[in-house]
Amino acid sequence: MPFPGTGNKINSAIVLCAALFVVVLLIAAYFDPSILVLHVFEALPYLIGAGLCLRRKKFGYMLAGVSGGFWLWTASFLTTFVRNGFERVAMLVRTGAVDRVDILIAAPAAIFAAGLVLFSTLGYARLRNRSWKDLALLVGAIMIVPAFFVLIFAVFAPQYLGMFRGLWRR
What we know:
Layout lengths: L8 H23 L4 H19 L3 H21 L2 H15 L5 H4 L1 H21 L7 H23 L8 H5 L1
Helix pairs in contact: 1-2, 1-6, 2-3, 2-7, 3-6, 3-7, 4-6
């Protein structure tokens, strides 16, 4: 059943994925209180994107999808966070216990981030007023989202900037 006023299940799925991703961010901050402010700011693009999707704004789909995709990329390819999270899921299934719940949460975070990418793409595809000019919105989101995340990492958690070091050398 869609959220009130959304009119479709895809937008509801975007909101649900964004909300659950933010819950994971808050759980991570519980385990490491030093990243609470970082995660409050990190939650903004997901929540703003989801809110714009409820209003069927093209940029909302771009923002939500690119934010989810950027998190997946950094957590999967620039770090081993996602892989380690799914290893903890396998450990939990195999043994009934897990040694690092703070790493385990990467698995649901990856699922919710992937959901944002998938449902944002589907939500945009369902719009009737798509045009080639929308590529400018996508390029804008692709530029804004990483810049925003690098900025908040620099301000609130500079220790995480190291994951980008190899990219800056190229």
